[in-house]
Design brief:
about 290 residues, alpha+beta, single chain, five-stranded mixed barrel, OB fold (Dihydrolipoamide Acetyltransferase, E2P), elongated
């Protein structure tokens, strides 16, 4: 039986190993998530040097090892140089890569692979004012593929349809959002849920301490944005507002920051691990360059 095999993979993590090698974490279409040594990749003129960079897509030839496989050959198919030239885009890409690592297994991962590549392409080419929106949609699509995306159109408890009202004027429309319940919830059900909450079990209490409150309220504009994330693509006008959001005059950037934080807390709770890259998100997107 051959000890070599081929795979198409994208590099998600790399760390030094020994004097000249790199230990790679790669998401492949055919074999899912794997760890492999890139021998000599840290040498100045190594053929694997550039091919072992972050977010590089390679056609690989690998050799099976006792504990770690070895990269024998790599032919680059695609890379994302625009991400490495912009801290906010790079951080957003690393954020999505962390979510993918939470979801991926050692089974074939073609759909997850294609999804990540598509969203990295969007991050690389998006205008500065829409990068955060692209990150939010990428987060939602990864959650959806994992089967844990928040319910955004029906109350999680009563299954009552929920449609945001953008025309309430002096009486702002609101709805509840419960991370533990799995999405939006009417204010009536939210109050009932909070009033009837008994002693939390140890695991739920631990995650609440780590990830913060499990319930909140959101406005009509936030829910309208959230409900559009399931679309294949977001379509923006020249002023970088969503074409179908109509009637929302608040700064889109501020709304997207709140939407991203909501999805971040939701993802961290359901994957039960922090997103380390998120520590830079708030500071990166506070820059006026990324405001709409």
């Amino acid at each position: 039986m051959s000890r070599t095999y081929k795979a198409t993979g994208i590099n998600l993590k790399a760390s030094p190993m020994g004097e000249n090698d790199r230990l790679m974490t790669i998401l492949t279409k055919e074999h899912g998530l794997l760890r492999a040594i890139a021998p000599g990749a840290r040498k100045h003129k190594s053929r694997l040097g550039g091919r072992s960079g972050l977010f590089v897509v390679n056609e690989l030839m690998l050799s099976k090892g006792k504990s770690l496989d070895k990269m024998i050959q790599a032919q680059t198919q695609q890379s994302f140089p625009g991400l490495s030239r912009d801290l906010a885009r790079l951080t957003a890409g690393q954020y999505l890569a962390e979510l993918v690592l939470c979801e991926a297994s050692e089974q074939p991962q073609e759909e997850l692979f294609e999804l990540l590549v598509a969203h990295l392409e969007r991050l690389e080419t998006a205008s500065a004012g829409t990068v955060l929106a692209c990150l939010a949609q990428g987060t939602f699509h990864i959650l959806a593929l994992a089967g844990v995306a928040p319910e955004l159109r029906y109350c999680c408890v009563s299954r009552k349809p929920i449609q945001p009202r953008l025309d309430r004027g002096d009486s702002p429309w609101q709805v509840g959002f419960s991370i533990a319940a799995g999405g939006v919830i009417t204010l009536e059900q939210l109050e009932r849920l909070e009033n009837n909450a008994g002693p939390a079990d140890y695991d739920a209490g631990r995650r609440k301490r780590i990830y913060g409150s499990l319930t909140t309220t959101i406005g009509a504009a936030e829910l309208a944005l959230l409900q559009q994330l399931a679309q294949p693509e977001l379509v923006f006008t020249q002023d970088r507002s969503l074409t179908s959001i109509g009637g929302v005059d608040a700064a889109p950037h501020g709304l997207w920051r709140r939407v991203e934080r909501l999805l971040r807390n939701y993802a961290q709770f359901h994957f039960d691990r922090p997103i380390r890259s998120a520590a830079l998100i708030d500071s990166c997107f506070a820059s006026p360059a990324y405001a709409s």
